[in-house]
UniProtKB/TrEMBL annotation:
This is Tet-like 2OG-Fe(II) oxygenase domain-containing protein. InterPro entries: 2OG-FeII_Oxy_6. Residues 192-390 form the Tet-like 2OG-Fe(II) oxygenase domain. It comes from the Eukaryota.
Length: 400
């Protein structure tokens, strides 16, 4: 039975071929395809689709969702002077923008019955309660901004300047990332002292290492690491990162520095657990059965440890869009404003521009500009693509 719909036509022979005396060919008929059939049989397979055109690099064939220039073009930010949205690129998002906001277009009024209005209000309240329950479960607090990811490549990436949870969909069951901002102005003095100790420790550790240039996605800045990882020397399986020549200059200082690693490991674990206990528990449950060592170089199993490796970056680090290839269920990330010359936390304005942390395929990112404090984030780095956009600092500045 044919349905009178406007769809593509396909010519097909009848299933049974009948031979007549006059050798007349069997009749043919037009088959009207449904929308589902059109999508399934007439669309080219995924591997034959043309690469989308990148608006920032039209002469190059690559995925615009992984192009740093195009990601920068889609990231709006708010200048402190004008308050108008501008792109991070060279041109403004809105040219000749008015100084006052135009009224938002309102949807046409609907003539709804009281029963329908009550049902809408009930569904809205139910959805809000479901979202608050998810916020409390994953972040330990109800009143935190909830963001549902958008994968539309044609809209701007939404940049956040305060704490939020990014959900993969409106059901709020699947977490993309949890981000919390901790301003120095309201931070407890004991917590700030521990962050200060961490920044001093990382700067001191970098003195005994060379930057890791084997990290594929990285193209700017310096990457360092602590703890255990796959070894590069013959007849060894795992090892720690250090440069023998630099250690030999101050071996006692290096050995004393390593005695503080258990405290560093414990502090980072506490911060991860404070950010999201469910995510921290999943990482710890994955790590503990391995009986692997913590960050300490003595290779002793630590029942309180949750990781055996830590990476940290300095000097305007930036990388390409990528997903990690490790086995950890979630990755924990801390952003500290540091004076690399002294190791002190920068409590005032930071001399830098850019450096946003972005999830381009899910349409959101973290904007650190103007924030004076610490930012923490946890996400499934093996599943959700991410990158750090390039940033610049004055030549005379030691902020990082």
């Amino acid at each position: 039975m044919n349905h009178p719909v406007e769809m593509p036509y396909v010519t097909a022979s009848l299933n049974q071929v009948t031979q007549t005396q006059n050798d007349v060919k069997p009749p043919r008929r037009l088959i009207q395809l449904t929308k589902a059939c059109t999508k399934k049989y007439l669309n080219p397979p995924p591997n034959t689709l043309e690469t989308p055109i990148c608006k920032s690099c039209p002469v190059e064939a690559h995925d615009p969702l992984e192009c740093v220039k195009d990601i920068q073009r889609r990231c709006p930010r708010l200048p402190a002077v004008s308050g108008l949205p501008f792109k991070i690129g060279q041109s403004p998002l809105i040219k000749n923008a008015p100084t006052t906001c135009a009224p938002c277009p309102q949807p046409a009024p609907e003539n709804l019955l009281n029963k329908q209005l009550c049902h809408r209000a009930f569904k809205s309240a139910q959805q809000l309660q479901h979202q608050n329950d998810a916020n409390l479960k994953f972040a330990g607090q109800e009143q935190i901004m909830a963001h549902v990811c958008r994968k539309n490549r044609d809209i701007n990436i939404r940049m956040f300047h305060k704490s939020f949870i990014a959900y993969a969909d409106s059901c709020c069951k699947h977490i993309v990332a949890i981000v919390k901002f901790y301003p120095f102005a309201t931070m407890d003095s004991s917590l700030m002292a521990r962050f200060q100790n961490l920044s001093h420790h990382l700067i001191a550790q970098s003195k005994f290492q060379n930057p890791n240039y084997s990290n594929g996605p990285a193209y700017a800045g310096h990457l360092f690491s602590l703890g255990w990882r796959k070894a590069y020397e013959s007849k060894t399986t795992v090892g720690i990162t250090r440069i023998a020549e630099k250690v030999s200059r101050d071996r006692k200082g290096w050995e004393d520095l390593q005695t503080h690693l258990p405290e560093v490991n414990r502090f980072i674990g506490e911060r991860f657990e404070a950010l999201s206990k469910p995510l921290f528990d999943k990482v710890k449950d994955h790590f503990q059965p391995l009986e692997a060592p913590g960050l300490s170089p003595d290779f002793i199993t630590n029942p309180d440890a949750f990781t055996c490796h830590l990476s940290f970056t300095l000097n305007n680090f930036a990388n390409q869009c990528h997903s990690n290839r490790d086995s950890s269920p979630y990755t924990f990330f801390t952003w500290l404003p540091i004076n690399k010359s002294t190791g002190q936390l920068v409590e005032g304005p930071l001399d830098r521009f850019g450096g946003e942390f972005v999830f381009p395929k899910h349409g959101f990112g973290i904007d650190f500009s103007g924030f004076q404090g610490v930012v923490e984030c946890a996400w499934k780095a093996t599943h959700f693509a991410h990158l750090t956009l390039p940033f610049t600092t004055p030549i005379s500045s030691s902020h990082t």
